[in-house]
Amino acid sequence: MVENRHPDKCIQVMCDCRESYNVVSTRAQLKTVDSVPPLHRQVIIVLTQLESSGGFSIAHRLTHRPSHSAGLHDWGPPGTNHDPAIDHITQGLHSPRPI
């Protein structure tokens, strides 16, 4: 989860879990990029063990930067705030919420 306590800046967050082993993501990808609005929090990814009979490992790299405007800029598709997109299936868990 990311919590943006800035009153006037978005926080762009890149979470890279691609070096994890035997896990599945609620967003169907192991790398996510999000723009979290000012004074909001967001669950960016939830990982769960895929095959219960084997071991698993979770590795993550979290990179963030402030931005004066919404959007992913050079971190994602133009005009988007989330990659992968938050659809009707994942919006209940992954949509940004006011603090």
UniProtKB/TrEMBL annotation:
Residues 69-99 are annotated as: Disordered. This is Calpain-15. It comes from Halocaridina rubra. The lineage of its organism: Eukaryota, Metazoa, Ecdysozoa, Arthropoda, Crustacea.
